Amino acid sequence: MILLRSILFFLGSFLATLIIGSLSFLTFPFPYIFRFYFVRSWAVFNLWWLNITCNLNYEVTGMENIPEKNAIIFCKHQSTFETIVLQKFIIPQVWVLKRELLWLPFFGWGLAVLEPIAINRSSGRKAVEQIKKQGINRLKKGRWVVIFPEGTRIKAGTEKRFGVGGAILAAESGFPVLPIAHNAGRFWPRRSFLKYPGTIKIHIGPIIESTNRTPDEINKLAKQWIDKTVTEIGG
Question: Does residue 124 carry a pLDDT above 90?
Fold first, then answer.
């Protein structure tokens, strides 16, 4: 049944990607916020369809920690799920992502209209400069910048060193960091087709101010809170 439910979710998600990805090109002439809400409808559908087909839901705690002004999101990266669910309550947002994602048919087209910070991860310092320069640009436009500081999805129950790009962006821009922890990897494991029923726990942490802090200090504070919270919620 888990395999059958996962197949049903994939078929519905794939169809939504074809439709919304194709139509997203038509939104280029419109303001960014319109484009964001249009593409966001894909995430809203997927969350609903995930619950219907796989009986997989989520609960969020710490919504009161989200500031009125935009900030930089540092989120645990265990699954595809968090890339979907963050669009539900972080509005509007852009991602820091590998540029290869923009080359994907339909899905990449939807990403492109949202003006993400698409980097070549193998370019080292140049990628960090790109995150800083484009990140400050997006932040000044009122957009949240979503960063998965581990750089890639990691298996639930494991840890990985945070990359320095997001922390440098925070230190240089003066915008605070909002840490987010979850245990999505227990229900939607990385590189797995199967989605298991249950309730994913998402915890939004207290703001980490970046003013007068070094990138290393920012990363340390964010990682300590995220790792500790992931352990507490069984991730």
Answer: no
